[in-house]
Amino acid sequence: MDTPIDTLSTSAPKPGYDPLYRQVKRRLIERIAAGEWPPGGGLPSETHLAAELGVSQGTVRKALDELASENLVVRRQGRGTFVSEHDQQRTLFQFFKITSDSGKRQFPETTFATRAIRKANSKERKALSLEKGASVWQVLRHRSLEGRVLVVERIVLAAEMFPDFDRHEPLPNNVYRLYERGYGLTVTRAVEELRAVACRKDDAAALGCREGDPVLRVDRIGYGITGKTIELRESICLTDKVHYLSDLH
Amino acid sequence: MDTPIDTLSTSAPKPGYDPLYRQVKRRLIERIAAGEWPPGGGLPSETHLAAELGVSQGTVRKALDELASENLVVRRQGRGTFVSEHDQQRTLFQFFKITSDSGKRQFPETTFATRAIRKANSKERKALSLEKGASVWQVLRHRSLEGRVLVVERIVLAAEMFPDFDRHEPLPNNVYRLYERGYGLTVTRAVEELRAVACRKDDAAALGCREGDPVLRVDRIGYGITGKTIELRESICLTDKVHYLSDLH
DNA sequence: GAGTGGTCTAGACCACTGA
DNA sequence: CAGTGGTCTAGACCACTCA
Q: Structure pTM?
């Protein structure tokens, strides 16, 4: 024991066969992804879905419970079941891990933003499944709290998925809501890689620190409901007054 | 909309009253915490628990399902329900977020370790709920992969919770299993704060880098099943070949 | 008060494990 | 084969929301 081993990730949905409630769940995901019920919109009640799909209410319930546990829907007693949307709460708690050292959690404001279109490099093409020669939008943002630039953020989006992306002016603070409302694309899951790196000269100017100072670099890949990659994001963050909060449970 | 707001954490177990299955769940947690079923040990079957507690099997099931979703128990079809233990899998995937840039996930080996007892400082006393003058164990470890020191780790434990902690020699690689087997203390949840900082001189020597180089500092607080703080841990990690992986879902 | 999700129950059957 | 958890059903009642 205690000998190092390599192991592969284990988050398998388990069974070798296919229970009814999972089929129901998949069909519901398809219909949500197809836009049958838009973000924030209400699904039919458990009773109605059960009748429509020809299964018992308990089976629909189990499917909906799983969707709720994956944050794809929100259930509200007495009101109904709704497709999750990127409101402030969700964006702040699910997708923004930077926290003030005092423990206060705030949504930063955008104090600078530019957008440009350019050819994707090979790394981006691979991550976004793009053909050679495809274009991407590149967004550069400064996000600030209490008048101080906290994060320099570079976002990369496939141009073909986001036509006329520069039409939206100004860029809203909550871009995930823009993806959702403007393009029907919901980021439901993200994976982040964190590294401590030396600050680059241009970022240092933005952050008000010196070149070479240690900064936290966060590389995020955002995935949609179908598992498709929607967004690449690199955040450079000065962690002298804030930190990245990670809950292991 | 889109105006910054402060908000407090929202992970409340919800209802204003107290459903039966939550009472069952709490009683089961108490019994697990009391050691009635040791880590790795099997709980009675759903049927038996239902009879013993005077509730239906479905209610016991719901309680056990919640415990399983919180990783307090593991359910195995055809075998039974077991109290979670810190086997390699769990320690690696739930509590070790450092990943090789190639994506491979390995358990590092301990290449250096010291233990000492000393007075707790005020910060430690506060975090561990200790009286003035209380003692703590301080563990210093180097953890390596492929012959290279990856992490310098400083662990702080309340001496009163870990009597004769220096008795265990050598210090096992998986210390959470030691807490569990030797002291009946299971770390079930941890919260980590991440910052990019300049490497200190002594850590630089251990990591084979230069003083001032950017390193990732991870401050962890480990909690037991009852919510009590068990461990404080500071990890200093050079992230040129590895990164910290965070899954947002 | 009608409609929603949340709880609790009871029972049947299925899939998996290990002796 | 007996015993375990996993699925599926049906029905009763509770708590909550909103018109």
A: 0.92
